[in-house]
Amino acid sequence: MTADLATALADYRTGMDAELQVLAQLESIATRQHALPHPPPAEVLTSLGLERERHLTALTGLEQQLQPLRALVAAHLELARTLPGFTGVEERHRRAGEYVATIMRLDGESLEALQRADQERRAAAHDLEAGEATLAAYRRVLQQPQPSAGLFNERG
């Protein structure tokens, strides 16, 4: 059992290294998105979204491969803790958690900024519509025939 667990732990560690690389890429994308001007250019936002989707797909695939290894290590955790390399796996888990926390924070801030930009856009559209309505009312008033100033046209 110890040999099988040691092999699973080594494979799990390798998989965690791959996950950390993908998480680093996702953090980079989140950082670039967070640094965009507001409102962000739609084409840049789309490009980052597609890039993020590719990395999330890769991360999901890695997670599916690592799930059975993680379950095996968790089922024999006390024994796994005594094996060489377990400390490295713990460190990788900690780093993965830090990546995820940073990505979540950056995404939350970016989402708030996008929501503010949307509110500002809606307010500007509302103001524009109100301004157009006011201009239309002024046009109607100006287009109406004005009564002549008859009193001043008479000689008297």
Explain what you see.
- This is FlgN protein.
- It comes from Luteitalea pratensis.
- The model has no long low-confidence stretch (mean pLDDT 87).
- The chain is mainly alpha-helical and 156 residues long.
- Helices cover 86% and strands 0% of the residues.
- It has a domain at 2-109.
Summary, kept brief:
With 156 residues, the chain is mainly α. 86% of the residues lie in helices and 0% in strands.
Q: Averaged pLDDT, please?
A: 87
What spatial form do the alpha-carbon principal axes imply? rod-shaped
Enumerate the spans where pLDDT stays under 50 for 5 or more consecutive residues: none
**Major β-sheet profile:** none
Q: Report the strand count.
A: 0
Number of H- or I-type helical stretches = 5
Rg over CA atoms, rounded to whole Å, is 31 Å
Structural class, from helix and strand content? mainly alpha
- N- and C-termini, Cα separation: 122 Å
* Fraction of residues in β-strands: under 5%
Order of helices and strands, N to C? HHHHH
Assign a percent range to the helix content. over 70%
